[in-house]
TrEMBL record:
Its main location: mitochondrion. Its cofactor is pyridoxal 5'-phosphate. Belongs to the cysteine synthase/cystathionine beta-synthase family. PROSITE patterns: CYS_SYNTHASE, DEHYDRATASE_SER_THR. The keyword Amino-acid biosynthesis applies. The keyword Transferase applies. This is Cysteine synthase 1. One of its GO terms (molecular function) is cysteine synthase activity. It catalyses: O-succinyl-L-serine + hydrogen sulfide = L-cysteine + succinate; O-acetyl-L-serine + hydrogen sulfide = L-cysteine + acetate. Catalyzes the conversion of O-succinyl-L-serine into cysteine, the last step in the cysteine biosynthesis pathway. Can also use O-acetyl-L-serine. Residues 45-347 form the Tryptophan synthase beta chain-like PALP domain. Pathway: Amino-acid biosynthesis; L-cysteine biosynthesis; L-cysteine from L-serine: step 2/2.
Length: 382
């Protein structure tokens, strides 16, 4: 009996010691884990991404430059948030019923986000995309269960643009199967996209910085992220937080904002994907006048930052994320030391590695010389 008692006491003491040690060595991790708890499905894991301090750039500018690690979303990008909310919006409005179909026109990460969300929720997914996209992207969407239609790449104004074809497809399905429903989620002008960032991304940034964020910047494609985060941060801070658009070559938004809405100048194209725009979308329209300015970011700056982030921070980022980091650095320099600037690390470089780290591709884009000499070691592909 005495031995049993001693063993019980020993086990209790050992268990308590282990718990105490775990809390001591991983206090932050345990606190985050307790807050996250257990989510019912994949969609519950969307969002709540960490802010990562970019130490080298922060030291250079005297500011806290923070990147929101959106590549940690289940689908690997920030577009998981928009995907979830456009589907939620269709459910709330009764347009989508169990077994229904989601249809979208997308050339990139929104399609991947929708594929994950639709699989988790039991919906069918149809994607229209320009036939200029890589076979790898088409294969990935099909692997995730989507029905994919690559169509000729034509301008937005053309009725055969992939977005309008997606809309017509959804309308046909709705007539054929009203019992289950079909919806064109229309990511560019569906303000449920913007709502995702008002309700999730913006509040997360405010909470993570304990309200000490001074500025936010990011590029825009649909406009949802920039508009939603701007709206929330402006409201919660009574206008104190500044917001800046970052724009690549080939987009009209920098000229539109810097000219006070007078110009829509477009020149050249960009290596970045999913950002830049030829118009002000419905997602962006209400917030465009709230912006405190815009920055034009060249491809040379973006590609150099891809390599800098990998070398200095261990962050393996796509070109759009790198563009955002360049913009955050320039906003920090504009504001001066002792400010906190937040941007979005939209996705990783995994889907773009065959280009971003290819000597041949860099040469073809006249970007080889933009890579600093000491970083050329990362050009590992022919």
């Amino acid at each position: 009996m005495a031995n049993v008692l001693r063993n019980s006491v020993r086990r209790f003491a050992t268990t308590a010691a282990r718990a105490a040690t775990a809390e001591t060595v991983n206090t932050y991790g345990i606190r985050v884990s307790q807050a996250q708890g257990v989510v019912d499905t994949l969609v519950g894991a969307i969002g709540n991404t960490p802010l990562i301090k970019l130490k080298k750039l922060s030291a250079e500018t005297g500011c806290n430059i923070l990147g929101k690690a959106e590549f940690q979303n289940p689908g690997g990008s920030i577009k998981d948030r928009a995907a979830l909310y456009v589907v939620k919006d269709a459910e709330e409005r009764g347009l989508l019923k169990p077994g229904g179909t989601v249809v979208e026109g997308t050339a990139g990460n929104t399609g991947i986000g929708l594929a994950h969300v639709c699989r988790a929720k039991g919906y069918k997914l149809v994607i229209y995309m320009p036939n200029t996209q890589s076979q790898g992207k088409i294969d990935l969407l099909r692997l995730l269960g989507a029905e994919v239609y690559p169509v000729p790449a034509v301008a937005w104004e053309n009725s055969e643009n992939y977005n309008w074809q997606a809309k017509r497809h959804a309308e046909r399905l709705q007539k054929e199967d009203p019992e289950h429903g079909a919806v064109w989620t229309n990511q560019f002008d569906n303000i449920a996209n913007r709502r995702a960032h008002i309700e999730t991304t913006g509040p997360e940034i405010w909470a993570q910085t304990i309200g000490k964020v001074d500025a936010f910047t990011c590029a825009t494609g649909t406009g949802g992220t920039l508009a939603g985060v701007t709206r929330f941060l402006k409201d919660v801070s009574d206008g104190r937080v500044k917001s800046f658009l970052a724009d690549p070559p080939g987009s009209v938004l920098h000229s539109y904002i810097s000219s006070g809405g007078q110009l829509k100048e477009r020149s050249g194209g960009s290596i970045t994907e999913g950002i830049g725009q030829g118009r002000v979308t419905d997602n962006l329209e209400n917030e465009v006048k709230e912006l405190d300015g815009s920055l034009f970011i060249s491809d040379e700056k973006s590609i150099a930052m891809v390599y800098r982030c990998l070398d200095e921070e261990g962050l393996y980022l796509g070109a759009s994320s790198a563009l955002n980091v360049v913009a955050a650095k320039e906003v920090a320099e504009k504001l001066g030391p002792n400010h906190t600037v937040v941007t979005m690390l939209c996705d990783g470089a995994y889907r773009y590695a065959d280009r971003l780290f290819s000597d041949k591709w860099l040469q073809s884009k006249n970007l080889r010389q933009a890579i600093p000499k000491h970083l050329e070691k990362y050009i590992v592909l022919p």
